[in-house]
Fold:
Amino acid sequence: MTDIKLPKGTKDLFPKEIEKWHFLEDKIKEFYSRFMYQEVRTPIFEHSELFSRGIGSETEVVSKEMYTFEDKAKRSLTLRPENTASLVRAAIEHNFIEEIYPLRFYYIGPMFRYDKPQKGRYRQFHQFGVEILADDSAQADAELIFSANKFLDEIGIKGLKLLINSVGCKKCRPAYLKALRKVAKKAELCNDCKGKAEKNPLRIFDCKQQNCKKSTEKFPRMLDSLCEECTTHFDLVKETLDGFGIKYTIDTTLVRGLDYYTKTAFEIVSEELGAQDALLGGGRYDGLFKELGGPDIAAVGFAAGMERIILNLSDYHKPKIKKTIIIYQQPQFIKEAIKIAQKFWENGYGAFVEYSQKKMKKQFQRANKLGADFAVILGEDEVKNNHLTIKDMKSREQKTIQTRDLQKWQKEYL
Ligand code: AMP
Structure:
C-alpha cells in the first residue's frame, strides 16, 4: 500500500459520484443558457494582488486561507479562492464590455481555501457562479436570485431557505461602520471578534460563538442606516421577487465574507445541511471593476458550492446509454469483435470488448459486472455466415440477425 495519501481537505471522485457531477454540470449549462448566460474559463492561479485588492486584505479568505506561492521568477501567485475577481480581471483585460453581449457569464471549476476541513467544507472545492455585468438595476438582482432558487428547486433540493439583506454602498456604509465599531469595541466578544471590532466589524455577525451571537443582537443594523438610493433599490428587489412569487426572509445579520459586496446580499441555505448550511451566496458588487482598475460599472452575481449541492442531491438522471458487450467465442475472432464494436461506436452507440479475457465464460462474467444490457455473440457459425447472435441480458432472450441488419437492430433496441 502506498504511504502517500490524499492531501487534507481534498477528495478523489469515483465513477458513481462523477455521474452526479456530470448531471449537475449539464444542468448548469442547460439552465443558464435559458437566461442567456455564456461560459467563461479563467486560470486556476492568478497574481496574488488580484485577490488582496479584489476581495479585501482584511477578509478571512485573503488573510488566512489563500494558497500563495512564489514561482521561479519570484512572482507571488495564488490558487484562486473564488472566481469573481478573475472574471472581472478578464472582463477589463479583454474589454468584454465592448465586445460581448449580453454581459452575462457563468463559470464552473475548482477553488482553493486553506480552511478547516469538515463535512461540506474542503480545501479544494468546486463552485459554479453566475454574474451579470454592467447592469445596476434591482430587477437584475431579483432575476438572478430567482434563477438561483429555481435552479436548486429544479434539481430537487429540499428545505431551501432564501435570505436577503442590503449591505449598503460607499455612501452610507462608512457612517454605519463607525457606529458599529463604537458598539463592538465595548461589547463582550471572543478574542477573534475583538480583533475584528476595529478592522472588520461586519464579520462579527458571522461568528458562531454563543456569546458573540448574543452581543450582536444589540448591534445596529446596516438595513436601518441605508441611504435613499440603497433603500429604493432594496424595495424594488423585494417587489420584483414578490412578482416572481418566491418566498424570502430578510436577515439583517447577513453580511457575506468578501469585501466587494454593495447593496443586495443573499444566501440560499438548506435546512437539511447542518453546520455548513449555505448552498450559495452572492450579491451586488458595484465597486469591484473600479477597484481593479476598470471602468466604473455595476455588477451582481453569486457562487454556489457544488460539493454541498451534491451532498443534497437525492434524485438525478443517470445518462441513459445502453451497454452492449461484444463476446467472441474463440480468441481468433477478436478481430471480428472489434469490427462489430466499431459499428456501435461509429453509429453513436455504446459497446465494449474484453481484450484481456479470451475465454467466453469470463467475458460473460465481465458483461454481468458491467451491467450490460445486450451481448452480441460471435461464434463459429456467426463468423462463417455473417450473422450475429444478440442476447438480451435481462430477459435472457436470444435472436440471430444478419450482420448487415445490425444498424436496423440498433435503431430499434438502443
Ligand atoms: P463564498 O465564495 O464564500 O461566498 O461561498 C459561496 C459558496 O461556496 C458557499 O455558500 C458554499 O456553498 C461554497 N463554499 C465556500 N467555501 C467552501 C469550502 N471551503 N468548501 C466547500 N464549499 C465551500
